[in-house]
Design brief:
Layout (H helix, E strand, L loop, with lengths): L2 E3 L6 E3 L2 E3 L14 H13 L4 E3 L8 H10 L8 E6 L14 H15 L4 E6 L8 H13 L3 E7 L3 H14 L6 E3 L14 H7 L2 E2 L25 H4 L1 H4 L4 H17 L3 H11 L7 E2 L4 H9 L7 H8 L14
Parallel strand pairs: 3-4, 3-10, 4-5, 5-6, 6-7, 7-8, 8-9
Antiparallel strand pairs: 1-2
Length: 326
Amino acid sequence: MEYTRLGSTGLEVSRLCLGCMNFGSDEPWMIGDEAKSRELIDRALDLGINFLDTANVYSQGESEEIVGRAIEGRDRDELVIATKVYGPMGEGPNTGGLSRKHVIDQCEASLERLGLDYVDLYQIHRWDERTPIEETLSALDYLVEEGLVRYLGASTMAGWQFSKALYTADLEGYERFTCMQPEYNAVDRHEERNLLPICADQGVGVIPWSPLAGGFLTGKYDRDDGPEEGLRAADDEYTAGRFTDENWAVLETIEGIADEKDVTPAQVSLAWLLHEEVVDAPIIGPRSLEHLEENVASLGVSLDDDEVERIGSQKRPVWPPEGKDR
């Protein structure tokens, strides 16, 4: 396993982060089996992955509980555990958003589900238009001061929002965000015109979600036929929305390079992301040990400048992203 520093911090994280959204039972495409989920976590840790990312809303806390039981007894000093807050955790008032009350209450609830005294990276899952950013930052700063959180992160928002959060933190003397979790892969390139330049300028670590575009970049979907029953795109319009001529052209280029190197399209796709200087650790979401091993093997795939250009030249990054409701 290879390791890197998260942004400009001294925190060492594996070059691949294990995404834990699959560890639950809310959706048909999730694993839905704790024993299999824990087997994946155990193997990832044995392979040297020390960075795990979950969220309170993943199966309404089930993912955090599974992760907590899986890491019990492991060397806590070596692990980097990340979770998130924002989404609704109930139907009544004050059960979602980024109010001081919800942020602090949910941090404590996440720690209980994870069985931890502190979380290494606590991230706001989305921007909250109804709560002043000063209130959210104050709550997050309190969690750091209390030792419940080590580092702060954010995910998926407009560049002006993230810039405002960073500026406000600096102005008010609050702990600032050290990490951003954007959607980013070879077909979802919009963040190159939104968040990524800000992260590069501000020394903010980048841990992209959906590095394989919901499975599209693995080559498992057929261009001429609709997705088979049981595959994520069969039930997920967001993933199916990637089936455009432009994106198929990107995939065909990736498949061509994969054939030349005798590796898989998924490995080339991850290698392309890892080549991007601003990217620290793509968040992989394997559903099987085979997929996990395949993803980790991408660390051994080398792309030259021409191959990186061949993949990147197929698409022009646009913000706001076309055809997506952000």
